[in-house]
């Protein structure tokens, strides 16, 4: 069971002391605490550090966020901020035509909303499709299965900044992609300075970076399907398409649902890679909601904390709904 | 030979390669190029000099103009191959260039200077890795400071994360007390509050606690994680309670039970959480960007971002710095690939 310091011959006095220190960590003060609190209240002592951090950095901020959203001005200190009621929300929501952000008072916010919506619809459907295809291919008895699984998963671990720089280097005017186009005799494109192409590349790069994660979840789901079902289907001479439609897809449905919701939650919050790759541009073509919040609160001459807080509460409402769905799905899957 | 074929083209028991197998392999090879090619391109590019990087179309490998030491000249001279005229095919070194004419010299006969028009020669190139991109980072860009900041945040945050989340998981899995299930649900509920939506209030709290421009301001907000508590609690539930009862008979304190019995047995789950935490912290971007404004407190991710935003970006240094930033993650992945993928597949978190 546990290795005990006094059973292993010490290499030196120092290492013995080190082991004592590690194995005896916290023992004396915690024994005292146990005597003071008694067994009944002791669990709370174990929970305390976690709950304090959650309290300060997760629960308290929600309350403060609401306070910021209903106060105005550029001051950070709450007592210096005048109460403005729903003005921030009104400010964000005033539009003559909701489908045309240029008619809105806060046009950048609505560009962010529409860009995010388009991004989410396109990115999530492509993400689910490609991770499903990749999982299906990897689930076949292919040579080097674990190698290819690692290849598809590797970008997931890269930081968003690194991901963005990798692609920026390829997409720049004199980059690899344009060199390839020039070699093929095609016209070169300034990929990140053209609004439509820049949008395309934010979708592409975010799929590239996160697909492996969803592939992994789907692959685990596929591997959990018992093989004798497939054998029975083969016995009934069911074709591959029929087998997929009637067996694989229904049995994979819980995993697909989890993947769909997780991908949605993350796509709504898209920020890091895009911010480094395009900076939200050209113009506001790739400015998404989180970037709007960040810029409004932290990257402007006048820091509009109230506006940012109001926008983040709206984002929170969307995410809250999505997470409820996710929790329900995970619980159903666990059953 | 047929054995080799059978191994190489293993199919789903049908013996022959079916068209679906061909498509699968095609897909995988395309995937390999698309997923890994860009990273490889970054690494290869990071070994080019600034001059090599602006070459268009780019070369795959870092080729540089060859230089040669010639007797009688202080510096090594650039080497050219002559493409026309009576010296065709010879390799000469350039002494100086005057308009379209150049004075060149045969390294074998350094005293004899010849005139060659510029269009009748082509530079001799050789494979050379520009290690300077890496070695100069330390001196010129105080890379060491940023590296230290990133390492400090990653290591300290991971240690605290492991400690306090395992403590909470221990309480939630090994005791029964009033409010236990409610507390667990409350912790899980924090999943619904991603850090992106509490940026403003968290910045205020960090400012009130004096944590702005401090590495602790990056570390503390994320040390309690619902994912960690969940992962560890589920694992601890599988540890039989008999062990704890036996230890209590021996008058072990509850902390001793946690520290010396439960924690060692939870090692596999702790390892998964440690890997996650290292990845989260090393790659974290938005919150550090909000809380760290002075460049001496920047992490690697922040300095990469601010460096690439400058108008005159020296891509050779930027690329080298990017490679160094992805290196630790890559090494961890290469060593622990199986643990990482299994951990994610079983917990569904990242």
Which band does the percent of strand residues of chain A land in? under 5%
Rg value of chain B? 30 Å
Q: Enter the CATH topology name of the largest domain in chain A.
A: MetI-like fold
Proportion of residues in β-strands of chain B: 5-15%
Shape annotation of chain A? globular
The average pLDDT score of chain A comes to: 85
Estimated helix fraction of chain A: over 70%
Determine and state the CATH class of the largest domain in chain A: Mainly Alpha
Unreliable runs of chain A: 1-6
The proportion of residues forming helix of chain B, as a percent range, comes to: 55-70%
Gross morphology of chain B is elongated
What is the first-to-last residue Cα distance of chain B? 44 Å
Give the SSE string of chain B.
Answer: HHHEEEEEEEEHHHHHHHHHHHH
The CATH homologous superfamily of the largest domain in chain B corresponds to MetI-like
List the helices and strands and how they pair.
The complex is a heterodimer of chains A (335) and B (350).
Chain A: H1 13-23, H2 27-37, H3 42-69, H4 87-93, H5 107-139, H6 145-157, H7 160-171, H8 176-183, H9 195-223, H10 227-235, H11 240-268, H12 272-277, H13 289-298, H14 305-334
Helix pairs in contact in A: 3-14, 4-14, 5-9, 5-11, 5-13, 6-9, 9-11, 11-14, 13-14
Chain B: H1 2-8, H2 19-45, H3 50-53, E1 63-65, E2 67-68, E3 77-82, E4 91-98, E5 101-106, E6 109-117, E7 121-123, E8 125-127, H4 132-141, H5 143-174, H6 180-189, H7 199-208, H8 215-219, H9 226-237, H10 242-249, H11 254-265, H12 267-283, H13 286-291, H14 300-309, H15 315-347
Antiparallel strand pairs in B: 1-8, 2-3, 3-4, 3-7, 4-5, 5-6
Helix pairs in contact in B: 4-15, 5-9, 5-12, 6-9, 10-11, 12-15, 14-15
């Amino acid at each position: 069971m546990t290795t005990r310091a006094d059973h292993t011959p010490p290499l030196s006095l120092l290492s013995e002391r080190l082991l004592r220190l590690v194995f005896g960590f916290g023992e004396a003060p915690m024994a005292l605490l146990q005597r003071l609190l008694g067994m009944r209240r002791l669990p709370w002592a174990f929970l305390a550090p976690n709950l304090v951090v959650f309290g300060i950095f997760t629960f308290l901020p929600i309350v403060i966020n609401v306070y910021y959203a209903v106060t105005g001005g550029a001051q950070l200190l709450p007592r210096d901020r005048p109460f403005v009621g729903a003005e921030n929300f009104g400010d964000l929501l005033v539009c003559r035509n909701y489908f045309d952000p240029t008619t809105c008072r806060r046009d950048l916010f609505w560009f962010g909303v529409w860009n995010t919506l388009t991004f989410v619809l396109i990115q999530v459907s492509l993400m689910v499709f490609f991770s499903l295809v990749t999982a299906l291919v990897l689930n076949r008895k292919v040579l080097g299965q674990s190698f290819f699984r690692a290849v598809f998963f590797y970008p997931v671990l890269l930081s968003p900044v690194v991901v963005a720089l990798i692609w920026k280097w390829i997409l720049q005017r004199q980059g690899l992609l344009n060199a390839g186009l020039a070699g093929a005799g095609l016209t070169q494109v300034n990929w990140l300075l053209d609004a439509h192409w820049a949008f395309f590349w934010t979708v592409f790069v975010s799929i590239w970076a996160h697909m492996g994660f969803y592939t992994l979840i789907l692959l685990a789901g596929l591997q959990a399907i018992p093989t004798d079902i497939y054998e029975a289907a083969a016995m009934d001479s069911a074709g591959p398409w029929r087998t997929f439609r009637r067996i694989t897809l229904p049995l994979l449905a819980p995993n697909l649902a989890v993947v769909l919701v997780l991908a949605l939650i993350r796509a709504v919050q898209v920020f890091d890679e895009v911010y480094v790759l395009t900076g939200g541009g050209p113009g506001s073509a790739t400015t998404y909601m989180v970037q709007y919040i960040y810029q409004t609160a932290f990257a402007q001459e006048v820091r509009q904390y109230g506006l940012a807080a109001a926008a983040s509460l709206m984002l929170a409402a969307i995410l809250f709904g999505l997470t409820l769905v996710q929790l329900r799905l995970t619980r159903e899957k666990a059953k | 030979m047929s054995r080799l074929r059978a191994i190489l083209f293993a199919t789903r028991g049908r013996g022959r390669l079916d068209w679906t197998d061909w498509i699968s392999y095609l897909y995988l090879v395309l995937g390999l190029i698309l997923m890994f090619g860009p990273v490889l391109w970054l690494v290869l590019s990071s070994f080019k000099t600034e001059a090599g990087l602006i070459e268009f179309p780019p070369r795959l490998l870092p080729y540089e103009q060859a230089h040669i030491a010639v007797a009688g000249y202080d510096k090594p001279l650039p080497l050219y191959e002559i493409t026309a005229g009576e010296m065709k095919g010879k390799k000469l070194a350039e002494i100086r260039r005057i308009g379209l004419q150049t004075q060149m010299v045969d390294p074998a006969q350094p005293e004899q200077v010849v005139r060659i028009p510029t269009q009748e020669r082509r530079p001799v190139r050789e494979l050379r890795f520009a290690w300077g991109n890496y070695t100069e980072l330390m001196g010129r860009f105080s890379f060491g400071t940023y590296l230290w900041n990133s390492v400090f945040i990653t290591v300290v945050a991971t240690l605290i994360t492991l400690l306090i989340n395992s403590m909470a998981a221990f309480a939630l899995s090994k005791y029964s007390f009033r409010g236990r299930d409610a507390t667990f649900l409350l912790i899980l509920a924090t999943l619904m509050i991603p850090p992106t939506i509490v940026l403003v209030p968290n910045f205020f709290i960090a400012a009130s606690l004096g944590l702005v421009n401090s590495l602790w301001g990056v570390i503390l907000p994320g040390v309690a994680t619902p994912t960690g508590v969940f992962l560890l609690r589920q694992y601890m539930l599988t540890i039989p309670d008999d062990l704890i009862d036996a230890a209590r008979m021996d008058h072990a304190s509850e902390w001793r039970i946690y520290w010396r019995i439960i924690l060692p047995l939870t090692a596999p789950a702790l390892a998964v959480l440690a890997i996650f935490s290292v990845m989260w912290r090393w790659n974290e971007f938005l919150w550090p960007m909000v809380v760290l404004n002075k460049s001496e407190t920047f992490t690697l991710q922040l300095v990469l971002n601010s460096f690439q935003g400058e108008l005159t970006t020296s891509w050779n240094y930027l690329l080298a710095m990017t490679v160094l930033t992805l290196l630790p993650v890559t090494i961890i992945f290469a060593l622990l690939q199986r643990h990482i993928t299994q951990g994610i597949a079983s917990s569904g978190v990242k």
